[in-house]
Design goal:
Rossmann fold; 9-stranded antiparallel sheet; globular; binds adenosine-5'-diphosphate
């Protein structure tokens, strides 16, 4: 990199200013790096803590171009951004990480699956379809999961199709049909690759979903898996980042099947919900790792300091409006409980409003405390 990150005029930009951007800024402060944020919402979680905040549409070419052209390094906290503008910015010498061509690939679940197939990365068999008619044509492939190729997130854009009667709820849009995986566990590995080519990965974590919301509710670190499974998960994550030549952190979501096979589900080229616990419970947080990676600095140690459970604080069902966090004060009386409140002014059912990391030398004890915290902290509206 031509300009050093500690020069007074060095500018690091992020497209998206949600909670991931906010937690990234918290780490960037430690190295005194100024962070410039572009987000459509003037009240986004990062707005109050960014060095410079600009309100604007991250999917609009001109807005991204004019924001990005003054940056030395530009990164993202969400994949749904204008990639054409990022490619142009790369051409004029802005360091855009992750690289725009990789963001383009990850935006499309069909291209992701083709990438795994091409590089021999284990993943569930799949078919690509253009519209609802494709469901009928693939009856013999059932049971499968229909996923919109573009635009889905947090389980939105994903439908399980087990029988012909499920066709009705199917999406009428370009989709991936992925063979249904009868998994034992969902795992995730965060891996990082620096602009110098150095690669480091965090130990695998185990995810437990809220069945109603299809969102991660609890995360357990480390995952309760055999050394062999850990090795398979690590190898898949490293193979993917090496093949992509991605710069930054990459979250790799995995399935562990009942017969011990590890398959990649999907990837996200940025800090991720499955790495929040690294802030307190690992030698290096995923946000600091991302910063190190995109600045070409040595990557940090990824070992766990202590077992932990991460609990997402989701807006309680039935409440919408100005938020209140009942039970937060009581939870602070418990040793090893670290709440993170994202600063969103209004709640709605299952909105990600914050998270809590619980640390304990015993993972079982951490699980008990996390359950207690879940019952204590209620994200509701004031009226
Ligand atoms: P999103 O991008 O919205 O998070 P995912 O592709 O990760 O979507 O799917 C959401 C969830 O749906 C997964 O975490 C998993 O629980 C379930 N799921 C996805 N693909 C499959 C599959 N092939 N078989 C069984 N369950 C799946």
């Amino acid at each position: 990199m031509t300009k050093s990150f500690y020069s007074a005029d060095f500018k690091l930009g992020i497209l998206g200013g949600g909670q991931l951007g906010r937690m990234f800024i918290q780490e960037a402060i430690n190295l005194d790096v100024s962070v410039h944020i572009l987000d459509p919402d003037a009240n986004a979680p990062s707005a109050k803590v960014a060095h410079h905040f600009q309100q604007g549409d991250i999917t609009d070419f001109d807005t991204v171009w004019f924001f990005g052209k003054d940056m030395d390094v530009l990164t993202i906290e969400i994949e749904h951004v204008n990639v054409d503008a990022l490619e142009k910015l790369e051409e004029i010498g802005v360091h855009v990480y992750p690289q725009p061509r990789l963001i383009r690939m990850v935006q499309d679940k069909g291209l992701q699956k083709e990438f795994y197939a091409k590089h021999g990365i284990p993943t569930s068999p799949f078919r690509l379809i253009e519209s609802k008619d494709g469901l009928n044509e693939n009856q013999t492939f059932m049971p499968f999961v229909q996923k919109l190729r573009k635009g889905g997130y947090d389980g939105k854009g994903v439908q399980v199709i087990k029988t012909e009667t499920d066709f009705e709820k199917g999406f009428d849009a370009p989709s991936v049909l992925e063979k249904f995986v009868d998994f034992e566990k969902e795992l995730a590995v965060i891996v990082a690759r620096s602009s110098t080519g150095e690669v480091k990965s965090f130990p695998a974590v185990e995810l437990e979903f809220n069945p109603e919301a299809n969102l991660v509710e609890f995360l357990f670190s480390p995952a309760n898996i055999s050394a062999e499974t850990e090795e398979k998960a690590q190898k898949i994550a490293r193979d993917i980042i090496e093949r992509m030549q991605l710069v930054g952190v990459l979250a790799v979501e995995l399935f562990l099947t009942k017969d011990g096979t590890v398959l990649v589900n999907e990837i996200a080229p940025r800090p991720h919900n499955s790495g929040h616990q690294t802030i307190e419970a690992s030698f290096t947080s995923q946000y600091e790792q991302h910063l190190r990676a995109i600045l070409g600095l040595p990557l940090g140690a990824t070992a766990i300091i202590m077992p932990s459970v991460m609990l997402n604080l989701l807006g309680e069902n039935g409440y919408a409006g100005p938020v209140t966090y009942n039970g937060l004060t009581e939870s602070l009386e418990i040793a090893g409980v670290y709440p993170h409140i994202y600063g969103k002014s209004t709640t709605k059912p299952f909105r990600k409003m914050g998270h809590v990391t619980v640390m304990n030398p015993s993972l079982d004890e951490a699980k008990k405390t996390a359950q207690r915290v879940k019952e204590l902290i209620r994200v509701q509206s004031q009226s």
